[in-house]
Design goal:
Blueprint (H helix, E strand, L loop, with lengths): L1 H9 L10 H9 L3 E13 L4 H6 L4 E16 L3 E4 L1 H4 L4 E5 L5 E10 L4 E6 L21 E6 L7 E16 L2 E9 L11 E3 L5 E6 L9 E5 H14 L5 E2 L2 E5 L2 H7 L5 E6 L4 H5 L6 E5 L2 E2 L3 H9 L6 E8 L2 E8 L1 E2 L2 H12 L1 E6 L1 H6 L8 E7 L4 H5 L6 E5 L2 E2 L3 H14 L1 E8 L2 E8 L2
Antiparallel strand pairs: 1-2, 1-4, 2-3, 3-6, 4-5, 5-6, 7-8, 7-10, 8-9, 9-12, 10-11, 11-12, 13-20, 14-15, 15-16, 16-17, 16-18, 18-19, 21-22, 22-23, 23-24, 23-25, 25-26
Length: about 425
Protein backbone atom coordinates (compact mmCIF):
# COMPACT_ATOMS: atom_id res chain seq x y z
CA UNK A 1 0.00 0.00 0.00
CA UNK A 2 2.83 2.39 0.88
CA UNK A 3 4.65 1.54 -2.37
CA UNK A 4 1.49 2.21 -4.35
CA UNK A 5 1.04 5.63 -2.77
CA UNK A 6 4.70 6.49 -3.42
CA UNK A 7 4.39 5.53 -7.10
CA UNK A 8 1.19 7.53 -7.44
CA UNK A 9 2.99 10.57 -6.05
CA UNK A 10 5.76 10.23 -8.64
CA UNK A 11 3.31 10.16 -11.54
CA UNK A 12 1.11 13.05 -10.40
CA UNK A 13 0.63 15.67 -13.14
CA UNK A 14 2.15 19.14 -12.57
CA UNK A 15 -0.05 21.42 -10.53
CA UNK A 16 -2.05 24.17 -12.20
CA UNK A 17 0.14 26.74 -10.45
CA UNK A 18 3.20 25.40 -12.28
CA UNK A 19 1.53 25.46 -15.68
CA UNK A 20 2.00 29.19 -16.05
CA UNK A 21 1.08 31.13 -19.21
CA UNK A 22 4.76 31.03 -20.22
CA UNK A 23 4.83 27.23 -19.97
CA UNK A 24 1.71 27.07 -22.13
CA UNK A 25 3.30 29.49 -24.61
CA UNK A 26 6.33 27.22 -25.02
CA UNK A 27 4.09 24.18 -25.47
CA UNK A 28 2.18 25.96 -28.26
CA UNK A 29 5.24 26.81 -30.33
CA UNK A 30 7.80 24.12 -29.55
CA UNK A 31 6.48 21.40 -31.92
CA UNK A 32 7.18 23.73 -34.87
CA UNK A 33 10.76 24.59 -33.86
CA UNK A 34 13.58 22.78 -35.66
CA UNK A 35 17.29 22.41 -35.14
CA UNK A 36 19.23 22.92 -38.36
CA UNK A 37 22.43 21.13 -39.30
CA UNK A 38 23.98 22.52 -42.50
CA UNK A 39 27.00 20.67 -43.88
CA UNK A 40 29.53 22.26 -46.23
CA UNK A 41 32.11 20.17 -48.08
CA UNK A 42 35.44 21.97 -48.50
CA UNK A 43 38.59 20.77 -50.22
CA UNK A 44 41.83 20.93 -48.27
CA UNK A 45 45.36 19.53 -48.45
CA UNK A 46 45.85 16.45 -46.30
CA UNK A 47 49.36 17.60 -45.39
CA UNK A 48 50.43 20.77 -43.58
CA UNK A 49 54.01 20.41 -44.83
CA UNK A 50 54.73 23.70 -46.67
CA UNK A 51 57.45 22.10 -48.84
CA UNK A 52 55.05 19.42 -50.00
CA UNK A 53 52.39 21.99 -50.78
CA UNK A 54 54.88 24.15 -52.70
CA UNK A 55 56.53 21.41 -54.73
CA UNK A 56 53.39 19.32 -55.20
CA UNK A 57 52.49 15.81 -54.20
CA UNK A 58 50.21 16.83 -51.35
CA UNK A 59 46.96 14.89 -51.30
CA UNK A 60 43.68 16.80 -51.41
CA UNK A 61 40.80 15.53 -49.30
CA UNK A 62 37.26 16.64 -48.64
CA UNK A 63 36.44 18.03 -45.23
CA UNK A 64 32.96 18.60 -43.85
CA UNK A 65 32.19 21.77 -41.94
CA UNK A 66 28.97 21.99 -39.98
CA UNK A 67 26.87 25.05 -39.20
CA UNK A 68 24.31 24.73 -36.40
CA UNK A 69 21.23 26.89 -36.12
CA UNK A 70 17.51 26.96 -35.55
CA UNK A 71 14.33 27.65 -37.47
CA UNK A 72 10.59 27.16 -37.32
CA UNK A 73 7.85 25.90 -39.60
CA UNK A 74 5.74 28.86 -40.71
CA UNK A 75 3.72 26.98 -43.35
CA UNK A 76 2.31 23.51 -42.59
CA UNK A 77 3.42 22.30 -46.03
CA UNK A 78 6.94 22.08 -44.60
CA UNK A 79 8.35 25.55 -45.20
CA UNK A 80 10.89 26.64 -42.59
CA UNK A 81 12.07 30.18 -41.86
CA UNK A 82 15.61 30.72 -40.59
CA UNK A 83 18.61 33.04 -40.87
CA UNK A 84 20.54 33.18 -44.15
CA UNK A 85 23.91 32.81 -42.42
CA UNK A 86 22.82 29.46 -40.94
CA UNK A 87 22.46 27.81 -44.37
CA UNK A 88 24.55 30.12 -46.58
CA UNK A 89 27.14 27.51 -47.53
CA UNK A 90 25.28 24.31 -46.71
CA UNK A 91 25.28 21.63 -49.41
CA UNK A 92 23.31 19.20 -47.22
CA UNK A 93 20.73 20.51 -44.75
CA UNK A 94 18.97 18.45 -42.09
CA UNK A 95 16.20 19.68 -39.79
CA UNK A 96 15.29 17.94 -36.53
CA UNK A 97 12.07 18.25 -34.55
CA UNK A 98 11.49 17.92 -30.82
CA UNK A 99 9.91 14.48 -31.30
CA UNK A 100 13.23 13.15 -32.63
CA UNK A 101 12.26 13.06 -36.31
CA UNK A 102 14.85 14.21 -38.86
CA UNK A 103 14.32 15.37 -42.44
CA UNK A 104 16.39 16.63 -45.35
CA UNK A 105 15.54 20.15 -46.49
CA UNK A 106 16.51 22.28 -49.47
CA UNK A 107 16.94 26.04 -49.77
CA UNK A 108 13.97 27.62 -51.55
CA UNK A 109 15.16 31.22 -51.44
CA UNK A 110 17.46 33.59 -49.60
CA UNK A 111 17.66 37.25 -48.65
CA UNK A 112 21.31 37.81 -47.66
CA UNK A 113 20.85 41.50 -46.96
CA UNK A 114 18.04 40.79 -44.50
CA UNK A 115 19.70 37.59 -43.18
CA UNK A 116 16.66 35.43 -43.95
CA UNK A 117 16.21 32.13 -45.77
CA UNK A 118 13.32 29.78 -46.50
CA UNK A 119 13.77 25.99 -46.54
CA UNK A 120 11.41 23.26 -47.77
CA UNK A 121 11.35 19.92 -45.98
CA UNK A 122 11.63 17.20 -48.63
CA UNK A 123 8.62 15.21 -47.46
CA UNK A 124 5.07 15.62 -48.75
CA UNK A 125 3.06 15.86 -45.51
CA UNK A 126 1.71 18.40 -43.08
CA UNK A 127 3.92 19.66 -40.26
CA UNK A 128 3.04 21.58 -37.09
CA UNK A 129 3.28 25.29 -37.91
CA UNK A 130 4.20 27.92 -35.35
CA UNK A 131 1.44 30.32 -34.29
CA UNK A 132 2.34 33.66 -35.87
CA UNK A 133 1.89 36.98 -34.11
CA UNK A 134 2.60 40.57 -35.10
CA UNK A 135 5.49 42.92 -34.41
CA UNK A 136 3.53 46.12 -35.04
CA UNK A 137 2.11 46.42 -31.52
CA UNK A 138 5.04 45.31 -29.35
CA UNK A 139 5.51 46.95 -25.96
CA UNK A 140 8.70 47.68 -24.05
CA UNK A 141 8.93 45.39 -21.05
CA UNK A 142 6.59 42.68 -22.31
CA UNK A 143 7.84 39.09 -21.82
CA UNK A 144 9.74 37.27 -24.56
CA UNK A 145 10.71 33.63 -25.00
CA UNK A 146 13.50 32.34 -27.26
CA UNK A 147 13.59 28.69 -28.37
CA UNK A 148 16.54 27.30 -30.27
CA UNK A 149 19.72 25.29 -30.47
CA UNK A 150 22.39 27.39 -28.65
CA UNK A 151 25.84 25.77 -28.81
CA UNK A 152 24.14 22.59 -30.08
CA UNK A 153 21.90 22.28 -27.00
CA UNK A 154 18.70 21.53 -28.87
CA UNK A 155 15.26 22.90 -27.97
CA UNK A 156 16.60 25.22 -25.27
CA UNK A 157 14.24 27.84 -23.83
CA UNK A 158 15.23 31.24 -22.42
CA UNK A 159 13.12 34.14 -21.21
CA UNK A 160 13.41 37.90 -21.03
CA UNK A 161 11.61 41.09 -21.93
CA UNK A 162 11.59 43.47 -24.88
CA UNK A 163 14.36 45.95 -24.09
CA UNK A 164 14.09 48.19 -27.16
CA UNK A 165 12.46 48.42 -30.59
CA UNK A 166 13.73 49.60 -34.00
CA UNK A 167 17.31 49.05 -32.84
CA UNK A 168 20.17 49.48 -35.38
CA UNK A 169 22.99 46.95 -35.05
CA UNK A 170 26.42 47.03 -36.69
CA UNK A 171 28.28 43.70 -36.61
CA UNK A 172 30.88 41.86 -38.70
CA UNK A 173 31.08 44.64 -41.27
CA UNK A 174 27.34 44.71 -41.93
CA UNK A 175 24.54 46.97 -40.73
CA UNK A 176 21.10 45.82 -39.63
CA UNK A 177 18.11 47.99 -38.77
CA UNK A 178 14.76 47.79 -37.05
CA UNK A 179 15.71 44.91 -34.74
CA UNK A 180 13.83 43.88 -31.62
CA UNK A 181 16.22 43.97 -28.65
CA UNK A 182 15.63 41.52 -25.80
CA UNK A 183 17.53 40.22 -22.79
CA UNK A 184 16.42 36.65 -23.48
CA UNK A 185 19.58 34.62 -24.14
CA UNK A 186 20.28 34.45 -27.88
CA UNK A 187 23.58 32.69 -28.53
CA UNK A 188 25.26 31.08 -31.55
CA UNK A 189 22.94 28.25 -32.54
CA UNK A 190 19.82 30.23 -31.59
CA UNK A 191 20.05 31.98 -34.95
CA UNK A 192 16.86 31.53 -36.96
CA UNK A 193 14.75 30.33 -34.06
CA UNK A 194 11.51 32.00 -32.97
CA UNK A 195 11.14 34.81 -30.46
CA UNK A 196 7.73 34.42 -28.82
CA UNK A 197 5.43 36.65 -26.84
CA UNK A 198 3.60 35.50 -23.70
CA UNK A 199 0.80 34.02 -25.83
CA UNK A 200 3.25 31.73 -27.63
CA UNK A 201 2.99 33.63 -30.92
CA UNK A 202 6.12 34.28 -32.99
CA UNK A 203 7.02 37.98 -32.93
CA UNK A 204 10.55 37.75 -34.32
CA UNK A 205 13.32 35.63 -35.86
CA UNK A 206 16.27 35.39 -33.48
CA UNK A 207 19.60 36.53 -34.89
CA UNK A 208 22.88 36.11 -33.00
CA UNK A 209 24.64 38.94 -34.83
CA UNK A 210 26.39 40.12 -31.64
CA UNK A 211 27.99 36.95 -30.34
CA UNK A 212 29.87 38.99 -27.71
CA UNK A 213 26.79 40.84 -26.45
CA UNK A 214 26.29 39.72 -22.85
CA UNK A 215 22.60 39.73 -21.98
CA UNK A 216 21.67 41.36 -25.27
CA UNK A 217 19.80 39.55 -28.01
CA UNK A 218 18.24 40.69 -31.26
CA UNK A 219 15.43 39.48 -33.48
CA UNK A 220 14.10 40.41 -36.91
CA UNK A 221 10.47 41.61 -36.56
CA UNK A 222 8.06 38.93 -37.75
CA UNK A 223 6.00 41.31 -39.92
CA UNK A 224 9.01 42.04 -42.14
CA UNK A 225 10.30 38.46 -41.97
CA UNK A 226 6.98 37.07 -43.21
CA UNK A 227 6.77 39.56 -46.08
CA UNK A 228 10.20 38.40 -47.21
CA UNK A 229 9.42 34.71 -46.60
CA UNK A 230 6.30 34.78 -48.77
CA UNK A 231 8.20 36.37 -51.65
CA UNK A 232 11.01 33.83 -51.29
CA UNK A 233 8.42 31.04 -51.34
CA UNK A 234 7.02 32.42 -54.55
CA UNK A 235 10.11 33.39 -56.55
CA UNK A 236 13.23 32.32 -54.63
CA UNK A 237 14.60 35.86 -54.32
CA UNK A 238 13.48 39.38 -53.59
CA UNK A 239 12.60 41.43 -56.64
CA UNK A 240 15.20 44.18 -56.58
CA UNK A 241 14.46 47.76 -57.50
CA UNK A 242 16.65 50.15 -59.48
CA UNK A 243 16.75 53.69 -58.11
CA UNK A 244 19.48 55.25 -60.26
CA UNK A 245 21.56 57.01 -57.62
CA UNK A 246 24.41 56.35 -55.22
CA UNK A 247 24.72 57.72 -51.71
CA UNK A 248 27.21 57.86 -48.85
CA UNK A 249 26.60 58.58 -45.20
CA UNK A 250 26.47 62.27 -44.38
CA UNK A 251 29.64 63.37 -42.58
CA UNK A 252 29.76 66.24 -40.07
CA UNK A 253 31.14 68.74 -42.58
CA UNK A 254 28.46 68.04 -45.19
CA UNK A 255 25.77 67.93 -42.52
CA UNK A 256 26.76 71.38 -41.26
CA UNK A 257 26.82 72.80 -44.79
CA UNK A 258 23.34 71.44 -45.55
CA UNK A 259 21.83 72.09 -42.15
CA UNK A 260 20.95 68.41 -41.62
CA UNK A 261 21.86 66.35 -38.56
CA UNK A 262 21.89 62.92 -40.22
CA UNK A 263 21.09 61.42 -43.59
CA UNK A 264 22.56 60.04 -46.80
CA UNK A 265 24.41 62.28 -49.25
CA UNK A 266 23.59 61.70 -52.93
CA UNK A 267 26.96 61.29 -54.69
CA UNK A 268 25.77 60.53 -58.23
CA UNK A 269 22.56 60.39 -60.26
CA UNK A 270 22.24 58.32 -63.44
CA UNK A 271 20.73 59.89 -66.54
CA UNK A 272 17.24 58.74 -67.49
CA UNK A 273 16.82 57.01 -64.15
CA UNK A 274 14.08 57.02 -61.48
CA UNK A 275 16.29 59.35 -59.42
CA UNK A 276 16.68 61.88 -62.23
CA UNK A 277 12.95 61.70 -62.95
CA UNK A 278 12.30 62.43 -59.27
CA UNK A 279 14.51 65.52 -59.48
CA UNK A 280 17.29 64.27 -57.22
CA UNK A 281 20.65 65.98 -57.63
CA UNK A 282 24.19 65.27 -56.59
CA UNK A 283 24.75 66.93 -53.21
CA UNK A 284 21.20 66.40 -51.95
CA UNK A 285 20.80 64.85 -48.51
CA UNK A 286 18.05 62.26 -48.12
CA UNK A 287 16.83 62.55 -44.54
CA UNK A 288 13.51 60.64 -44.63
CA UNK A 289 11.82 57.76 -46.45
CA UNK A 290 8.03 57.75 -46.11
CA UNK A 291 8.41 59.69 -42.88
CA UNK A 292 11.02 57.36 -41.33
CA UNK A 293 14.27 59.16 -40.41
CA UNK A 294 17.43 58.19 -42.31
CA UNK A 295 20.55 58.03 -40.15
CA UNK A 296 23.06 56.95 -42.78
CA UNK A 297 23.45 55.42 -46.23
CA UNK A 298 23.07 51.85 -44.93
CA UNK A 299 19.73 52.70 -43.36
CA UNK A 300 18.60 54.35 -46.60
CA UNK A 301 19.37 51.13 -48.49
CA UNK A 302 17.53 49.15 -45.81
CA UNK A 303 14.42 51.30 -46.06
CA UNK A 304 14.36 51.10 -49.87
CA UNK A 305 15.14 47.40 -50.24
CA UNK A 306 11.68 46.18 -49.15
CA UNK A 307 9.71 48.58 -51.35
CA UNK A 308 7.47 46.66 -53.81
CA UNK A 309 8.19 47.25 -57.48
CA UNK A 310 6.04 49.95 -59.02
CA UNK A 311 5.60 51.82 -55.74
CA UNK A 312 6.22 55.58 -55.59
CA UNK A 313 8.19 56.44 -52.47
CA UNK A 314 8.13 59.83 -50.74
CA UNK A 315 11.61 61.10 -49.86
CA UNK A 316 12.48 63.97 -47.56
CA UNK A 317 15.41 65.80 -49.18
CA UNK A 318 17.53 68.66 -47.84
CA UNK A 319 18.89 70.98 -50.54
CA UNK A 320 20.41 74.38 -49.78
CA UNK A 321 19.38 74.09 -46.11
CA UNK A 322 15.74 73.71 -47.14
CA UNK A 323 13.78 70.49 -46.97
CA UNK A 324 11.81 69.49 -50.03
CA UNK A 325 9.93 66.37 -51.07
CA UNK A 326 10.63 64.03 -53.97
CA UNK A 327 8.75 60.98 -55.18
CA UNK A 328 10.79 58.18 -56.69
CA UNK A 329 9.50 55.01 -58.37
CA UNK A 330 10.75 51.51 -57.58
CA UNK A 331 11.74 50.33 -61.08
CA UNK A 332 12.71 46.69 -61.88
CA UNK A 333 16.46 46.03 -61.94
CA UNK A 334 17.36 44.40 -65.28
CA UNK A 335 20.55 42.42 -65.88
CA UNK A 336 22.07 45.39 -67.73
CA UNK A 337 21.23 47.73 -64.88
CA UNK A 338 22.60 45.22 -62.36
CA UNK A 339 25.94 45.45 -64.14
CA UNK A 340 25.85 49.24 -63.81
CA UNK A 341 25.12 48.99 -60.09
CA UNK A 342 27.99 46.51 -59.72
CA UNK A 343 30.39 48.85 -61.51
CA UNK A 344 29.28 51.75 -59.33
CA UNK A 345 29.69 49.76 -56.10
CA UNK A 346 33.04 48.15 -56.93
CA UNK A 347 34.71 50.67 -59.25
CA UNK A 348 35.35 47.84 -61.71
CA UNK A 349 34.50 48.05 -65.41
CA UNK A 350 34.93 45.07 -67.74
CA UNK A 351 35.03 44.88 -71.52
CA UNK A 352 34.72 42.05 -74.02
CA UNK A 353 37.84 41.11 -75.99
CA UNK A 354 37.88 39.02 -79.13
CA UNK A 355 40.10 35.95 -79.16
CA UNK A 356 42.54 37.80 -81.44
CA UNK A 357 42.75 40.79 -79.06
CA UNK A 358 43.30 38.46 -76.12
CA UNK A 359 46.07 36.56 -77.93
CA UNK A 360 47.80 39.82 -78.81
CA UNK A 361 47.76 40.61 -75.07
CA UNK A 362 49.58 37.35 -74.40
CA UNK A 363 46.69 35.02 -73.54
CA UNK A 364 46.38 31.67 -75.29
CA UNK A 365 42.63 31.59 -75.92
CA UNK A 366 40.41 30.50 -78.80
CA UNK A 367 37.19 32.38 -77.93
CA UNK A 368 36.18 35.83 -76.66
CA UNK A 369 37.05 36.73 -73.08
CA UNK A 370 36.23 39.45 -70.58
CA UNK A 371 38.97 41.74 -69.37
CA UNK A 372 39.18 44.42 -66.71
CA UNK A 373 38.90 47.68 -68.64
CA UNK A 374 39.07 50.21 -65.83
CA UNK A 375 39.62 50.27 -62.06
CA UNK A 376 38.55 53.47 -60.32
CA UNK A 377 40.95 54.99 -57.82
CA UNK A 378 40.24 54.30 -54.15
CA UNK A 379 37.50 51.84 -55.13
CA UNK A 380 36.78 48.39 -53.70
CA UNK A 381 38.32 46.86 -56.84
CA UNK A 382 41.47 48.97 -56.45
CA UNK A 383 41.82 48.02 -52.79
CA UNK A 384 41.42 44.35 -53.72
CA UNK A 385 44.33 44.64 -56.17
CA UNK A 386 42.58 44.20 -59.52
CA UNK A 387 44.38 45.65 -62.54
CA UNK A 388 43.51 46.72 -66.05
CA UNK A 389 44.06 43.77 -68.39
CA UNK A 390 43.17 41.04 -65.89
CA UNK A 391 40.83 38.44 -67.39
CA UNK A 392 37.53 37.68 -65.64
CA UNK A 393 36.90 33.96 -66.19
CA UNK A 394 33.95 33.25 -63.87
CA UNK A 395 31.49 34.83 -61.43
CA UNK A 396 30.38 32.63 -58.54
CA UNK A 397 31.66 29.57 -60.45
CA UNK A 398 29.61 30.46 -63.56
CA UNK A 399 31.88 30.80 -66.60
CA UNK A 400 31.66 34.19 -68.32
CA UNK A 401 32.95 34.85 -71.84
CA UNK A 402 30.69 37.66 -73.05
CA UNK A 403 29.11 40.79 -71.61
CA UNK A 404 25.74 39.04 -71.66
CA UNK A 405 27.22 36.20 -69.58
CA UNK A 406 28.64 38.75 -67.15
CA UNK A 407 25.38 40.68 -66.82
CA UNK A 408 23.39 37.52 -66.13
CA UNK A 409 25.97 36.29 -63.61
CA UNK A 410 26.02 39.59 -61.73
CA UNK A 411 22.21 39.72 -61.65
CA UNK A 412 22.20 36.19 -60.21
CA UNK A 413 24.97 37.08 -57.73
CA UNK A 414 22.89 39.93 -56.34
CA UNK A 415 20.40 37.33 -55.07
CA UNK A 416 23.09 35.84 -52.82
CA UNK A 417 24.53 39.24 -51.91
CA UNK A 418 28.09 38.44 -52.96
CA UNK A 419 30.04 38.12 -56.21
CA UNK A 420 33.26 36.11 -56.30
CA UNK A 421 35.25 36.78 -59.48
CA UNK A 422 37.75 34.23 -60.76
CA UNK A 423 40.47 36.36 -62.34
CA UNK A 424 43.41 35.31 -64.51
CA UNK A 425 46.64 37.31 -64.52
CA UNK A 426 49.21 35.67 -66.73
CA UNK A 427 49.13 31.99 -65.78
CA UNK A 428 47.85 32.66 -62.28
CA UNK A 429 44.20 32.36 -61.17
CA UNK A 430 42.92 34.28 -58.17
CA UNK A 431 39.53 34.94 -56.57
CA UNK A 432 38.24 38.39 -55.59
CA UNK A 433 35.04 38.75 -53.56
CA UNK A 434 32.70 41.74 -53.40
CA UNK A 435 29.66 42.27 -51.19
CA UNK A 436 26.65 43.43 -53.17
CA UNK A 437 24.18 44.00 -50.31
Amino acid sequence: MVAFLFLATLTTAPSAARRTPLVLAVERARPAVVNINAEEVVRAFASDDPWQLFFGGGRIRDQVRTSLGSGFVFDERGYVLTNYHVVARGSRIQVSFDDGSDYIARVVGTDPGGDLAVLKIQVDRKFPAAPLGASSDLMLGEPTIAIGNPFGLNQSVSMGVISALHRPVHAEGRSYYDFIQTDASINPGNSGGPLLNADGNVIGVCSAVLATGQGIGFAIPIDRALRVAKELQKSGALAEAWWGFDADSLDKEAAAALGAKTGALVTSVEDNSPASAAGLRRGDAIVRVEGSPVRDADELRFLLRDVPLGTRVLLGVVRGKKEIEARISATPLTAERAQGVFESRTGLTVAELSAREARSAGYDVSKPVLAVHEVSRNSAAARAGLRRGDLVRAVNSAEVDTMMDFQKAIAQARKSGRAVLLVQRGYRLQEFGFDLG
